[in-house]
Amino acid sequence: MKSTQKRKRSLSSAICRFCYKTLRRLNLCAVALCCLIVMGCDRYGQKPVCSSIVDDKDLGNFYYGPSGTAFDGETGTIWYRCAGGSYFSQNTCPGDPLKLSWLDAVAYAAELSAVSGVEWRLATLPEVRSIISPSCIGPAVNPNVFPGMKSANVWTYSENSLQSDAFRCSVYTYNGAYSCRELKRIAKSFLLVHDPSDLLKGDSLRRSFFGGEGEALVPLDM
């Protein structure tokens, strides 16, 4: 009888020790999880809005060009400073940006190229990511270079070779997050770029494309 009671007490003690250790581990895990959540919230919460921290004269790697363009001295890309469908005027971008399917956005750039004589195209994924600032959000771009830019998902010309032709890559300008599994038929905003060599075709081209001071590239109606 005594032997049986001793075994029961020993078993109960072992169970209690097991439960105590298990609860202690669970408590530690819960504390660690809470710390990770708090740290994660702090990391995102600490990022300020770009327009509130970028100095009015800070252009980063960019140089202003005529008629609403900006030259990226690091990548050599020339950007139109407003999203497709809006236009540059008085250092801002009046008009609402167009939201088109990927195919329609590509067609818009092609028609604009035919009208202006300059080969405009959708910016690629690396090009869009190159203008994203890692230190701020909402949208994560230099507001001096891209005035009036809104947080939006924008098409890029890039595709993911592992996906079918029905998908293309897009970037969320709010924080630079991107995905290459976006269906081409979805309507999104887009950004336009061209290469510097396109402007070296003669004075007549430059005169026909670039207007006077403060004039802008008028968007096409789609």
What is the CATH fold-level name of the largest domain? Answer: Mannose-Binding Protein A, Chain A
Secondary structure: helix percent: 25-40%
> What is the CATH class designation of the largest domain?
Alpha Beta
Order of helices and strands: HHEEEHEHEEEEEH
Radius of gyration: 27 Å
CATH architecture of the largest domain, by name, is: Roll
Helix/strand-derived class?
A: alpha+beta
Catalogue the unreliable spans. 31-44, 201-222
Distance between the termini: 94 Å
The domain count comes to 2
Largest sheet, described in full? 5 strands, antiparallel
Tally of helical runs: 5
Mass-distribution shape = globular
Strand order of the largest sheet: 1-2-3-9-4
Number of strands: 9
Estimate the strand proportion: 5-15%
Average the pLDDT over all residues and give the rounded result. 80
How would you describe this protein?
The protein has 222 residues and is of the alpha+beta class. The protein has two domains: 1-46; 50-209, Mannose-Binding Protein A, Chain A. It has helices spanning 2-45, 50-53, 102-116, 125-130, 203-209, and strands spanning 62-64, 69-72, 78-80, 121-122, 153-155, 167-172, 178-183, 189-190, 192-194. The strands form two sheets. A five-stranded antiparallel β-sheet has the order 1-2-3-9-4. The protein has a four-stranded mixed β-sheet with strand order 7-6-5-8.
